[in-house]
Design goal:
Layout: E1 4-6, E2 12-15, H1 23-35, E3 40-43, H2 45-51, E4 60-64, H3 68-79, E5 82-86, E6 91-96, E7 99-101, E8 104-106, E9 109-115, E10 117-120, E11 129-132, H4 135-140, E12 150-152, E13 160-162, H5 167-172, E14 175-176, H6 183-186, H7 189-201, E15 204-205, H8 207-218, H9 227-238, H10 243-253
Parallel strand pairs: 4-9, 14-15
Antiparallel strand pairs: 1-2, 2-13, 3-4, 3-12, 5-6, 6-9, 7-8, 10-11, 12-13
Length: about 260
C-alpha cells in the first residue's frame, strides 16, 4: 500500500519504489545530507523513469537544499569515490569504483549533485541568471512536468515522491506539459527535448503546450539557439532508440 504524507511546501507526496540496486547508495547519500542538515532529493529523469517502471536508469541526479558540493564531498569521503567539482555552477560529480556485492561485481556508480536553484531569463534563449532556491524553485525551472518530480532521500522520508506540478498525472495521460507559457521562448532547446521524449515514451503534447510550441516555432525560436546548443540537441536526437521518428516529428512541426 502507498503511504501518503506532506511535502516541504505542504503538497501531497506518495511513496515511490526505487530500484533495489541503487537504494543502498541513495540511503547513504540521504543520511549524509541529513547529518549536514541539508535535505537531499533524487530529481529529474531518474524519478520519471522510476515512475514509469523503468528500472535500468543509470543516471542519478541529486539536488540539495543547502550546498550540493558539500554533500558530494561528504559522500566521496564516506563511500570512497572521486568527486569532480564545478564550483562556478554549484555542481559536483561523484564517481565510485566498481565493487563486489553478494558475489557479483557491481559497475561503477555516478551521481551528479547540484544545489537547489532558481533561474531567471533576461531575454529569450539567453543563459539564465542563477541564484540559490528551494526545492520547488528547482523543480519549476525544469522543462516538463514529468521531469519536475523529486524523491526525498532523508532517512525519515526516504522514497517519498514530491510532485508539486502534477508530473505523475502527466505521465498517466501520456502527455508532455510545460510548467509555464514562456518555457519554449526562455529555452528553445526544450522543443527538441520534447520531440525526443515524445518519440522515446510515446507521448503527445498537452493542448496548451502544443499551442505554445506552435507559437515558438512560428516565431523562429530554434534559430535563437547558438550553434553549439543546437548541435548538442541534434546529436542527442541521433542517439535515441528511434532517431528517424524524432526527425520525422521535428519536420512535422514545420509543415
Amino acid at each position: 500500500m502507498r503511504s501518503i504524507t506532506q511535502g516541504p511546501s505542504g503538497h501531497r507526496v506518495i511513496a515511490l519504489a526505487i530500484p533495489a540496486r541503487v537504494t543502498p547508495l541513495l540511503r547513504r547519500v540521504g543520511a549524509l545530507a541529513g547529518g549536514l542538515r541539508m535535505p537531499a532529493y533524487a530529481v529529474g529523469g531518474c524519478v520519471r523513469d522510476w515512475r514509469l517502471g523503468l528500472r535500468r536508469t543509470s543516471d542519478l541526479d541529486v539536488t540539495v537544499e543547502g550546498d550540493g558540493i558539500a554533500v558530494a564531498q561528504a559522500a566521496a569521503r564516506a563511500l570512497g569515490g572521486t568527486v569532480t567539482i564545478h564550483r562556478q555552477f554549484g555542481t559536483a560529480t561523484l564517481v565510485m569504483p566498481p565493487r563486489s556485492a553478494g558475489g557479483r561485481r557491481q559497475a561503477a556508480g555516478r551521481i551528479d549533485f547540484a544545489t537547489c536553484r532558481r533561474e531567471v531569463y533576461a531575454k529569450p534563449a539567453a543563459y539564465p541568471t542563477v541564484s540559490p532556491g528551494t526545492l520547488d524553485d528547482d523543480l519549476f525551472r525544469r522543462d516538463f512536468t514529468m521531469n519536475a518530480m523529486a524523491v526525498a532521500l532523508l532517512p525519515q522520508r526516504f522514497g517519498m515522491l514530491v510532485d508539486p506540478f502534477q508530473g505523475a498525472a502527466s505521465l498517466r495521460r501520456r502527455e508532455l506539459r510545460i510548467l509555464h507559457d514562456r518555457s519554449f521562448t526562455d529555452d528553445p532547446s526544450r522543443i527538441l527535448r520534447g520531440v525526443r521524449f515524445a518519440a522515446r515514451f510515446g507521448l503527445h503534447w498537452e493542448r496548451a503546450t502544443a499551442d505554445a510550441l506552435r507559437a515558438a516555432v512560428a516565431a523562429g525560436a530554434l534559430g535563437w539557439l547558438n550553434a553549439g546548443r543546437l548541435r548538442k540537441e541534434l546529436e542527442l536526437m541521433c542517439e535515441e532508440p528511434d532517431p528517424v521518428a524524432c526527425f520525422r516529428h521535428l519536420a512535422e512541426l514545420f509543415s
